[in-house]
Specification:
The complex is a heterodimer of chains A (206) and B (233).
Chain A: E1 3-7, H1 23-36, E2 42-44, E3 50-52, H2 54-62, E4 67-72, H3 77-92, H4 98-110, H5 122-131, H6 160-176, H7 187-205
Parallel strand pairs in A: 2-4
Antiparallel strand pairs in A: 1-4, 2-3
Chain B: E1 2-5, E2 9-13, H1 16-26, E3 36-44, E4 47-55, H2 60-63, E5 75-83, H3 91-106, E6 112-119, H4 126-130, E7 134-140, E8 144-146, E9 152-154, H5 155-160, H6 162-169, H7 177-184, E10 188-189, E11 193-200, H8 218-221, E12 226-227, E13 230-231
Parallel strand pairs in B: 5-6
Antiparallel strand pairs in B: 1-2, 2-3, 3-4, 4-5, 6-11, 7-11, 8-9, 8-10, 12-13
The chains are: A alpha+beta (206), B alpha+beta (233).
Chain lengths: 206, 233
Amino acid sequence: MKIEQIELKKIKPYFNNPRKISIDAVEKVKKSIEEFGFQQPIVVDKDMVIIVGHTRYKASKLLNLEKVPTVIADIPTDKVKSYRIADNRTNESSEWDLPLLNKEFLDLLDLKVDLSLTGFDENEFLKIMKDHKDDENIDFPEIEDIEKRDFEEITFTFSLEQGAIVKEQLEYVKKNIDIDDETNTNKNGNAMFHIIKTFSDSISKK
Amino acid sequence: MTQLVKNKLLVKLISKPLADSIVKKYHYSGKVVQNSKINFGVYYNDILEGAIQFGSPLDKKKVIGYVKNSRWNSFFEINRMAFSDVLPKNSESRALSISMKMIKKKYPFVNWILTFADATSCGDGTIYRACGFHLVGVNKNNTIYEMPDGALISNIAMRMSPTFQKKYIGKMVYDKGVQIAKKEKGAVLKKGFQIRYIKFLDEKYKKDLTLDILDYSELDKKDARMYKGMRVL
């Protein structure tokens, strides 16, 4: 792969780029280029039309860069279109592993690095760090030494439609009725028992 | 609660989500289970390089009789154990030993630990043997299936996992999951062995074991050896 420094004015955006690019995304890439330099070339076809790197192109314009690192791709014309979509689509298939991302944030804070350089805004990284603040500060759970279990677990199988109704009704009972029971801390169990007891009482009255 | 040992190996409790992340990253199956209650992180040079997850077995009633007179919470299963490749030799077994000592200290009523080694795809339990686990079962696999895309699925997941049924069967079929996956979706039983080990945290309970303790050489006799996913001949 040959990376060339090509004048920005010679590079052309693809007229029908199907990927929407937000101002926010351009700003983040601009900040990244300012902080880390241009580490990922723009990829163009032989006519200098962008295949991959529209956001970097826009950020480069904002930064008034004269030349940018560019790869002129040796890809047949019929494949350029699909590669343009595939490059974006394959990125969508990955997702963040939040506990590990939180550890990276903590390491960066130790190094006194501004977390906004990661492309996450303050609300985002603060939420992730809040959600995972106790990941490495855990106590043993309380487990009692009991002779035999003092609860019953019963599994039912519902159709999707039945399951939705059951869940909806359990949520209603949990939200609206005092179902606390000192013998059981499981809210779903108490809600289910309340529904069945109510039904049972109504039958016996008839 | 932490315990520091030589060679910068540290074993400490971590959250289930963080342990799950490590298991997804390093366990051969890439899958986690929901029943893990006690999750240890294994740090080497301050970097989290492994996780050991203890919890209840999926079907506790089925295994509680392995040791006579067991109380409901007097045993745990190792649900998952996964390490990166950078850990030096023997550190996995040291980490496991430390985690079991920490369990015994916190829960004195826990007397034994059950675990399984998957010698269809991973290993025959080298780490467990290094920690002095007793070999109590070498059984031909009849629970782990391989899908045409290479995914490994247990028969329980085939029957109970909506994710599996939606992805591979296209709809919910509940108890018919195994049958349909085998007949119509190309699920094939993995060749190899499931190996069962038990460790007594207090050896006085060994007399109550209802399973035969097998010599480790039984693995060779049954041609069940496997190391890092490769059969050992």
